[in-house]
Amino acid sequence: MDSFKFSYKMEKEDNILMNVYSSGYQKCEGGYAMGPIIRNHYLIHHVVSGKGYYTVNHQTYEVCQGDTFIIYPDEVVSYCADKLDPWEYYWVGFSGADAKALLKQTDFQKKHPVIRTLCSEELKQTLLNIYHCSGTELYHHVSMAGYLFLFLSILIRCSQTHDHGVDISMEYVRQAVNFISEHYEQHITITDVADHLGISRSHLYRVFIKNMAQSPKEYLEHYRVKQGCVLLEKTSMTINEISNLIGYTDPLHFSKVFKKQLGISPKGYRKTKIKRQM
Q1: Is the peptide bond before 36 cis (omega within 30 degrees of 0)?
Q2: Where is 20: in which H helix or E strand?
Q3: How many CB atoms are located within 10 Å of the residue 118 CB?
Q4: What are 2-12's pLDDT values in tens digits?
């Protein structure tokens, strides 16, 4: 059978709890290889035919039809199709507030990045649905995120090593994220978030570090900067107006945070986007 590849890659992230970064499916040529590479997001491949080899942390796994393997962020990996029986796989790359906690409820572990379930066809179809929803509009991104949640729910349902009880620390994170998305423009502080949840600021810090690998302050600043990017691209508002609209009382502080995160000032970011659109 001839090789083929269909894929979609997101140009930018929306401020939703989960973002699909890329999706697609491919029938590889014999020996087709990727890597060594490092991803800044999670990437899951599900193999529907053939076989190949996945190398991570100096260990190589043979991955066959029905297997699913995960690439974690910031790990050096490589993978290649078998020369005589090359694999066909479907994939999704993603990131977001819920990703780490949901993946903990699957059979994936860093020491066991390849798993096998009895749901191969269901996984394939759901990954295909993610790809078919691809597009540039917000409703496309929300649809893709919806199927991503469904895909992860299948992996959780089919897992054999977890009891799937509610993790109260993740519930605090989820409520905090929702509160931030609804009130970030009101000049809220992390103390306001903690008070809303009825927990101490230090407790909120601990659950964010545990589940998000970042502090609540870092999450709030990243969220506000993302909103600022949208306003810089889509409106003609001044930097001062945007700063106030996304919750900063001091435009200079907004510019400082923005440059620290993106390596460019808000004014420079807007100029860059305008040039690309011309």
Answers
A1: yes
A2: strand 18-27
A3: 8
A4: 776 666 555 54
DSSP for residue 241: H
Alpha carbons 267 and 235: distance in angstroms, whole number: 13
The tokens of 262 are what?
């993106």
Q: How far apart are CA 218 and CA 63, in angstroms?
A: 38
**pTM assigned to the model:** 0.63
CA dihedral 177, 23, 72, 39 (to 10 degrees): -100
Which residue shows structure tokens 């140009």?
11
pLDDT in tens, 217-273: 999 999 999 999 999 988 999 999 999 999 998 999 999 999 999 999 999 999 887
**Per-residue pLDDT tens for 43-93?**
999 999 999 999 999 999 999 999 999 999 999 999 999 999 999 999 999
Integer Cα distance of 88 and 222 in angstroms: 37
Tell me, what DSSP letter sits at residue 112? B
Half-sphere exposure of 117 (CA within 13 A, CB side): 25
DSSP one-letter code for 186 = G
